[in-house]
Amino acid sequence: MKVTVLTADERIVSLDVEPDELVENLKAILEVETQVPLAQQQILFNGKEIPNSSRLNASGVGDNDLLMLVSARAASSPATGAPTDLGLKPDGTAINPIALIRHIQGDPNIMRQLQENNRELAQAISNNNVDVLQNILRQQHQQKMLMQEQRQREIDLMNADPFDVEAQKRIEEAIQQKNVDENWEAALEYNPEAFARVIMLYVDMEVNGFPLKAFVDSGAQSTIISKTCAERCGLLRLMDKRYRGIAKGVGQSEIVGRIHVAPLKIGQNFYPCSFTVLDQPDLEFIFGLDMLRKHQCSIDLKDNVLRVGGGEHSVPFLQENQLPLHLHDDKRLEEPASSSGPSSSTPVNVHPPAPIHAPGGPVSAQESNKRARSPQVLYIFLILQYYYWLSREVVYELYLSYCFLELIDFLIHF
């Protein structure tokens, strides 16, 4: 059952104890938690002191009950036969650490409580390590003293001048930090898996017959392959450099081209796939949203598989021990986006393909204007063809002349 102990300095200690636990054992636990010597402790329930030889359930203490812990002088405290050498010094260390170790080792309930709430101290007691025990007790005492000093500073801030702007700011910061600490403690208790590292989704694929570990990212707009990976897969010769551009995200990366189609093997099946080629060596291959949609893929986190083709085929996501060494970098796995790489959730800005210039050099202004007037030329051609069918004899010679001029223009620019 759970009991809550309120100390004289208004501290609250929550403990899990057995219903038939001895009060003396409860005091031994509170001695470690509150630094109040066992001989000076008095446990009150409903205003009445509970003797050390009594059990909690026999004294009427039930689940979620509140107990009071008050400190009394050793001389005025009732003689209970509790050994005085189990107390603690002012610095938090044990007066007789060997006796304290033997006393705690002899009670399995106390050991169980320590293993749940204070594993380092329980391990030191189990190993009969006096030096480690004293160091842990001293460090915990110092931490509690620092917390008491901080709490006292907060009280002083509360009692400061209410019209002092700086004091109000410090009070606001203290309240905000307290809320953050409470939220952190609640997350540790109710949502501890939030502090675990999440392994990204990787599957085994083959690009043009070369195996690789593909990062499945539904937040990436396009399927991305690095220039070095494309060269290793023998696809760099198919790269269309007209699709140059800039991938903008948290940082920027240069898009050096695009591979329009190449065979991609997922499981035992082959699929056509297009790639955007980035000049980024630390990025190998990202299976993006464009190909996920094209091949009707779904990320099944329940079964830990990637389903392809509307669920007809599936491949398992790789475990952490199946990833290559360069993907085990903790910094890379913990940071979702690099400051120099493209963000997977940001669209990739790709410039349209550049026009193919003639091998003779740059295009002149006259030729550019002529190409810019191509819609007007086509419009005139359609009008002439229309009149040709209406009156072949009138427009026939004009039509032949126009065709002859177009043929000459084509031969010149061919």
From TrEMBL:
Molecular functions per Gene Ontology: aspartic-type endopeptidase activity
Keyword Oxidoreductase: no
GO biological process, one term: proteolysis
UniProt keyword Hydrolase present: yes
Origin: domain of life: Eukaryota
Keywords: Aspartyl protease, Hydrolase, Protease
Ubiquitin-like domain ranges (all copies): 1-76
InterPro entries tied to this protein: Ddi1/2_HDD, DDI1_N, Peptidase_aspartic_DDI1-type, Peptidase_aspartic_dom_sf, Ubiquitin-like_dom, Ubiquitin-like_domsf
Disordered: annotated span: 333-368
PROSITE patterns, sorted: UBIQUITIN_2 (PS50053)
The family this protein is said to belong to: Belongs to the DDI1 family.
Protein name: Ubiquitin-like domain-containing protein
